[in-house]
Amino acid sequence: MSSSTPMVGQSFIHRVRSGELGFLPIVGALLVIWAVFGLLNHTFLSSDNLVNLTLQSAASGIIALGIVLTLMIGQIDLSVGAVSGLGSAVVSVTVMRAGLPLWLAIAAALVVGVMIGAAYGLLFTRLGLPSFVFTLAGLLVVLGIQLRVLGSTGTVNLPYESWLVRFCQQMFLSPWLSYLLVAVVVIGYAASLVVTRERRLRVDLPADRWASIALRVGVLTLVAVVATTYLNTNRGVPYMFALFLALVAGTDVVLRRTRWGRAVRAVGGNLESARRAGLPVRGVVVSVFVACSTFAVIGGVLSAGRLASAYQGTGGTDASLTAIAAAVIGGVSLYGGRGSAWSALLGILVLQSISNGLTLMNMGASATYTVTGIVLAVAVIIDELSRRARGARGASRA
Amino acid sequence: MAPSDLPDDAWRAGAPARPVLALRGVSKSFGAVRALVGVDLEVHAHEVLAIVGDNGAGKSTLVEILSGAQVPDAGHVEVDGEEVTFTSPGAARAQGIATVFQELALCENLDVVENLFLGNELERGPLLDEVTMERRAWEVLGQLAVRVPSVRVPVGALSGGQRQAVAVARSLLGEPRVVILDEPTAALGVMQTAEVLNLVERLRERGLAVILISQSLADVHAVADRIAVLRLGRTNGLFSASTTTYEDLFAAVTGVRTGHHRPADGDPPTASHDASGGWAR
């Protein structure tokens, strides 16, 4: 029927009119940004710089992934930057000052993240406080704890031979491994489409046409192979970025294809309806805040590895704002219930491309902040206009 | 739970049917406000019982008691002649009583299939079984002859009547024997009201007992077999739709007694006789 494979042009117009734009604006914006910077600066599209871009994107992208989840339930966590800073501080101090093994330090940081998220979740579910207020309070508290953990020197360095630092700075997928992973992903995707098609046909449901399946698998193959090949002409695909991609893909499946993910989207769409449908609303909200703080800690640990140190400025307000902006620019609705894990990837790529490109052109922080702000404003305007288009469509039929 | 065939067969044999759901002398007060006073009602399979009344007549309280959201102060609820106590909406649902509330409890951002199975999703291993859910969605919508452009459009893009149909379809997935519709046409236009009334008739054809709570005497007259009038918390008349005029109903609802008003409250034999008259039309 109409949802599977209508005429491409009709489907596009239909989606624009009905406010279901999907990833079209963000992918278009990313291509425009790359084209513009590519024309203005010769090094921007070099494989060396694009490898840098992936390294710059991974940690903040993982933090943005947590923000995607909170926005999906219509809430916000303003403290993710501070939480990531605390995560990096806990890891560095536990390893360097307490002398404990790295894995234990990372586990400790993750536990801290879980506890912070659980505290937010309980504040929301038990007291009904607005999340932007208690996460703002949390930001200050966590920032204070971060400074306390780091101590008087304010900086704790990690040794370069630490596997965390190597993982974040020097470890790249070998070419054969990168192509193997691409093959696994493409074949897995194609197999899932074919299996779904067969199952749907067996019960007389409309199914994707072969042409549509071939098109989608073809596009995925093209993008993955071209990107991998190009990055392989330089250092290759960083492990850290591969981890980010895996977390995004995993979160996407969980959001779309599990009961928990459906409950998250239902709570974001209409909390009262979700409650009436018998969903464990409180548990869902707490688990989302826990997941968000945990992603923030993972992002912080990776930042510590990439910088080989934790200092007072790790994380902080900038990291929070970048993560939130990335999620919104990536197309997650501020009104809850609409968005995708892939928004974190696309959003952070846009933001880091702008920052990276402007830096290459020797335009400093002022230009970066301004342009980022404008892009964010455009994203919010698109979100609002889509919402109105949906509302008008629903209302005119009602 | 399969829809019970017993009352149907009993009716065919000409014997008085046993009500699927009944209220016996139910009273409920909120502080000094007596919302319901000694209400008796019963509904049978293959029957649409309408409950009408003005604002403040006690309709909402009645729905809450029937759906398990409130426990009566006095009197009791019977299912298949057995006294039951519903302590929660879940308990009522487990007895085969599904309520579609006025606020439909749909999530506008989720599509039709997602809404239908919300909280009761089918799984295939660790993941959701979208194929089976979509298949069952088409089936249940088909049984109700509900037309939607696609079961994969967000419910926010549907009309009010379609949303009502989705909410009713969701209640049917639990295979209930009684469906309670609370003001299903309150926010709808003429065409969509007609669609919903068709839906009500289709529920009756499926052998369900339907309780239709409404303020619209016209709707009620069009679709109900029997009509119970609530006024100030009391049953103010029980009418057979085929033999009752709009004026009779209006008088009973408002308390302005003009025409030949025929009270029959608390009289079960009359009630089931009226009900069979309703089927025959």
TrEMBL record, chain A:
InterPro entries the record matches: ABC_transp_permease (IPR001851)
The protein's name: Xylose transport system permease protein XylH
GO molecular function, one term: transmembrane transporter activity
Main location: membrane
Spans through the membrane: 21-41, 53-71, 78-96, 102-124, 131-151, 171-192, 213-231, 237-255, 284-307, 319-337, 344-361, 367-385
Function: Part of the binding-protein-dependent transport system for D-xylose. Probably responsible for the translocation of the substrate across the membrane.
Matching Pfam families: BPD_transp_2 (PF02653)
Keywords, in A-Z order: Cell inner membrane, Cell membrane, Membrane, Sugar transport, Transmembrane, Transmembrane helix, Transport
Keyword Transport appears in the UniProt entry: yes
GO cellular component: plasma membrane
CDD domains noted in UniProt: TM_PBP1_transp_AraH_like (cd06579)
Membrane topology of the entry: Multi-pass membrane protein
Signal peptide extent: none
Subcellular location: Cell membrane
TrEMBL record, chain B:
PROSITE patterns for this protein: ABC_TRANSPORTER_1 (PS00211), ABC_TRANSPORTER_2 (PS50893)
Entry-linked SUPFAM superfamilies: P-loop containing nucleoside triphosphate hydrolases
Keywords per UniProt: ATP-binding, Nucleotide-binding
Nucleotide-binding as UniProt keyword: yes
Domain of life: Bacteria
Keyword 4Fe-4S: no
Region feature (Disordered): 258-281
Pfam families given in the database record: ABC_tran
Positions of the ABC transporter domain: 21-257
UniProt-recorded Gene Ontology molecular function terms: ATP binding; ATP hydrolysis activity
Signal peptide residues on this chain, from the entry's feature table: none
Alphabetical list of CDD domains matching this protein: ABC_Carb_Monos_I (cd03216)
Official protein name in the record: Monosaccharide ABC transporter ATP-binding protein, CUT2 family
PANTHER family: CARBOHYDRATE TRANSPORT ATP-BINDING PROTEIN MG119-RELATED, SUGAR ABC TRANSPORTER ATP-BINDING PROTEIN
InterPro entries (UniProt xref): AAA+_ATPase, ABC_carbohydrate_import_ATPase, ABC_transporter-like_ATP-bd, ABC_transporter-like_CS, P-loop_NTPase
